[in-house]
Design brief:
Elements (H helix, E strand, L loop, with lengths): L3 H17 L2 H17 L1 H8 L5 H12 L5 H12 L6 H15 L2 E8 L5 H15 L2 E8 L6 E6 L2 E6 H14 L1
Parallel strand pairs: 1-2
Antiparallel strand pairs: 1-3, 3-4
Length: 178
């Protein structure tokens, strides 16, 4: 889960965007920024580095984002820099995305499998979770070769572990308790 400070900043930005009816474009901006952060370790190090003078960091932020994102997003980035909080940008993007999904009746899930799921399996799993949770489902899927088989699904703080390893562990516990 994200840092409490990041959630507060995300909530404030979310409410501001909701008031000004520009939630969608700001959400798209933050998704792009989050993707940039995931792809660039150099950008993350830049934002996390307290040694860089504030004026230098601000000029780089201006150069990188002016005219390329919504005005609200741009002012928010400068605000984060002024408050010396740019290191929280990734967590803020993530928290904003969760607020956006929540407001639109979408539950964010993470699925981990040993190999890629087929389109048919993705559809079946999505429909099953949709019925179980009573909400639309957005899935972040990843593969982990350490999982021998099965699937692990995270919904918020709850993890449903249907991996082969977990099933064998349960089987062992049942056998040992007899």
């Amino acid at each position: 889960m994200s840092h409490p400070l990041a959630r507060r900043y995300a909530r404030a930005l979310f409410e501001l965007c909701r008031e000004h009816r520009n939630l969608e474009p700001v959400h798209q901006d933050l998704k792009k920024i989050k993707r940039l952060l995931e792809e660039s370790d150099e950008l993350v190090r830049f934002l996390d580095n307290p040694v860089i003078p504030p004026a230098k960091r601000e000029s780089i932020i201006k150069e990188a984002f002016h005219g390329k994102v919504e005005a609200v997003t741009y002012r928010f980035l400068l605000f984060l820099e002024a408050k010396r909080r740019p290191a929280y940008l990734g967590a803020i993007c993530e928290a904003f995305d969760h607020l956006y999904a929540q407001a639109h009746g979408i539950v964010k899930t993470q699925w981990t499998t040993s190999s890629e799921l087929s389109t048919h399996d993705i559809h079946l799993m999505t429909e099953h979770l949709k019925k179980k949770l009573g909400m639309e489902v957005a899935a972040d899927r990843k593969t982990d070769p350490d999982i021998l088989g099965g699937i692990k699904v995270r919904v918020g703080d709850v993890v449903y572990d249907y991996t082969l390893r977990a099933q064998l562990r349960k089987f062992r516990q049942n056998v040992m308790s007899v």
